[in-house]
Design a protein that fits this description.
Shape: globular
Number of helices: 5
Domain START: 46-225
Structural class: alpha+beta
Protein name: Lipid-binding protein
CATH class: Alpha Beta
CATH superfamily: START domain
Number of strands: 12
Keywords: Signal
Distance between the termini: 41 Å
GO molecular function, one term: lipid binding
CATH topology: Alpha-D-Glucose-1,6-Bisphosphate, Chain A, domain 4
Helix content: 10-25%
Strand content: 25-35%
Number of domains: 1
Signal peptide: 1-35
Length: 246
């Protein structure tokens, strides 16, 4: 955990800043087992809240929650193969997800259905968060679209002392190839289970997807993620992402 005094936050602002950041990072770094509960991507009640650097962030109310869902949309200037190379790398969370300091695969699984464990460093005095993700990936050659659902399964791995396990959030990534670029749609709803008012979290969380998508584009351009290809079966279903020379 970091001490906010090192960043110039003191007095009452220090714990408030730490708690706000913790909840916002928690909202982006976790996912639940109810991805189907996310708002429809094409629903009419999405409201544009921010547009910058080609990234548009929308929000909508989520029934039964004080916290809004968000949808972030952008066309990233990298091929879909690069992005999928990042996504299948269990350590890539550290490079592009805000405050992720540890990430690893664990347990049984394959390309379509696997598990990952990650840790997010929280600003002092909030405890670090860890989370266990059930990641499901599917794609169709006819459309080129690839969809990932990330679902928190907190009981899949024993708790770690000193860390708070994340258990509530829904996330979906949709990738659509557009030549050498990729359209990404990121939909998420999280209830941080905190004491902050919903209006405050809703006002701040719209900035987080922008920074994350900018980082993802930069990371996907790195040499280590070049030269990958998508592998399809005889039925046109995505079965793997193969590395250079494979």
């Amino acid at each position: 955990m970091r001490n906010p005094r090192a960043h110039g936050f003191t007095g009452w602002a220090a714990p408030a800043f730490g708690l706000i950041c913790a909840l916002l990072v928690l909202a982006l770094a976790s996912a639940t087992a109810q991805a189907e509960a996310l708002p429809d991507e094409q629903a009419a009640d999405w409201h544009l809240r921010k547009e910058t650097d080609g990234i548009r962030v929308y929000t909508t109310e989520q029934p039964g929650s004080r916290f809004e869902a968000f949808k972030a949309v952008a066309t990233l200037d990298v091929p879909i193969e690069n992005l999928m190379a990042v996504m299948i790398d269990p350590t890539s969370c550290v490079a592009w997800v805000h405050n992720c300091v540890e990430s690893q695969a664990f347990g049984p699984g394959d390309f379509h259905d696997r598990f990952a464990y990650s840790v997010n460093d929280m600003p002092w005095p909030v405890a670090d968060r860890d989370y266990v993700l059930h990641i499901r990936t599917r794609g169709e050659r006819d459309t080129g679209v690839i969809v990932m659902d990330l679902n928190a399964t907190p009981d899949q791995r024993p708790n770690t002392q000193g860390r708070t396990r994340v258990d509530r959030s829904d996330t979906r990534y949709r990738f659509t190839p557009e030549g050498d670029r990729t359209r990404m749609v990121w939909i998420q709803h999280t209830d941080p289970n905190g004491t902050l008012p919903g209006w405050l979290v809703n006002a701040l969380v719209i900035d987080i997807p922008v920074r994350s998508m900018q980082s993802l584009e930069r990371v996907a351009r790195q040499p280590r993620y070049q030269g990958f290809r998508l592998v399809w079966d005889d039925h046109g279903r995505l079965v793997d992402v193969a590395g250079p020379g494979s």
